Amino acid sequence: MTAPEPRYEPARALALWGEEEIAAAVEVLRSRSLFRYYGPDLRHRVDAFEAEFSAVTGVPHTVGVSSGTAALTAAMVGLGIPEGAEVIVPAVTFIGSVNAVVQARGIPVFAEVDDSLTLDPERLDELVTERTWGIMPVHLANAAADMRPIAEVARRHGLRVVEDAAQAAGVHYGGRPVGGLGDAGAFSFQLEKNLTAGEGGAVTVGDPAVYDRVARFQDQGGQFTTGRGGDRGASAEAPFLGANLRMTELTGAVLSVQLRRLGPMLERLRNIARHVRRETADLPVRWRRLPDEAGSGGDLTLLLASRLEARQFVAALTAEGIPAHTMYQGQAVYANRAVREGRTPWGVAWDRPARCRASEGLIGRSVTVGLGATMTDGDVDALVAAFRKAYEGLAPAAG
Ligand SMILES: *Cc1c(COP(=O)(O)O)cnc(C)c1O
Hints:
Layout: H1 19-31, H2 45-57, E1 61-65, H3 68-78, E2 86-90, H4 95-103, E3 107-111, E4 132-135, H5 147-157, E5 160-164, E6 172-173, E7 176-177, E8 184-188, E9 201-205, H6 208-217, H7 249-279, E10 301-303, H8 307-319, E11 324-325, H9 337-341, E12 343-344, E13 347-348, H10 357-364, E14 366-369, H11 377-392
Parallel strand pairs: 2-3, 2-4, 4-5, 5-8
Antiparallel strand pairs: 1-9, 6-7, 8-9, 10-14, 11-14, 12-13
Helix pairs in contact: 1-7, 2-7, 3-4, 3-6, 8-11
Bound molecules: pyridoxal-5'-phosphate.
């Protein structure tokens, strides 16, 4: 079976990539100053991006880093995670969430998601032990996790909250941008995210002491952040060794351009998603629940009756040129053998088998209909028509 080419590119800010990104990159290349802390003609593009990103998230401090995984790691290190501490991670997420916990020398503990496909606040208490240090809610596919009850559980047990906002730059919850709802937030600027430079990430943090630790950690313990290359970190109050997770000037320059596209892009995608839901309101579609629809960044994920139906639905949409997929091949993150068996670069770190049955069921029968930032009204109409046809073509057990 050969599916037709998709009608539109199911990409976000990457689909809007244009001459401005190219000009911004060329300016940095001409300056010969791609290192963020010094150079013959430094343009301070990472500094500028950090300030602009803080303005968008409303969080006082942003630290640009090399990836979303690096951002999560740096956030946990900045918050002082002790070695061997447990971090509660949803069963449905990208493996980067798990890798970051391991890199921060923590132990991931997997928690159930609910019909929002984000952390089920009702199933957190049962996982808390004396080794639990933090909770990592994941704002999956442009919709925030239900942060209010999650924060309440964290408060009750004295836990840290590190938001994995890799898939949710510009998304809001309760009127506030994600990244500022927990103790720290982490964003990714990899190819598929809301803004992209191919790679990149950012930590958002309010507490200046935590900011200082994050900034040092991503820069070899503060080689250049604290001394600007002069006294090589000698001014540090409480020095510690770190890593090199630095963002380059090229990345900062491109991201500043992409950031200007973010707000209007998310509004357009949210409106498309709303339109599709309205146009299919007569069908018994079970959309995933969005804890804050008004703050979401445009997502069309639904839950079918079974794995088989989900597969049929994806095939039917794809046959009409509408991009669709089941997230993470319909599997919990611990389906990965290394995760399941606790194999880290330093040996086996856990052997408690994870089992989140509700999450396994939900992710397996989910379908995400791809939206694209350059979709035309004609593409949206075609999506609605294909959606109706695919839904009505399901076995009568549907809904
Ligand atoms: C993309 C992603 C990450 C990792 O980001 P990278 O920039 O690829 O390292 C982490 N968590 C989630 C939920 C993601 O989608």
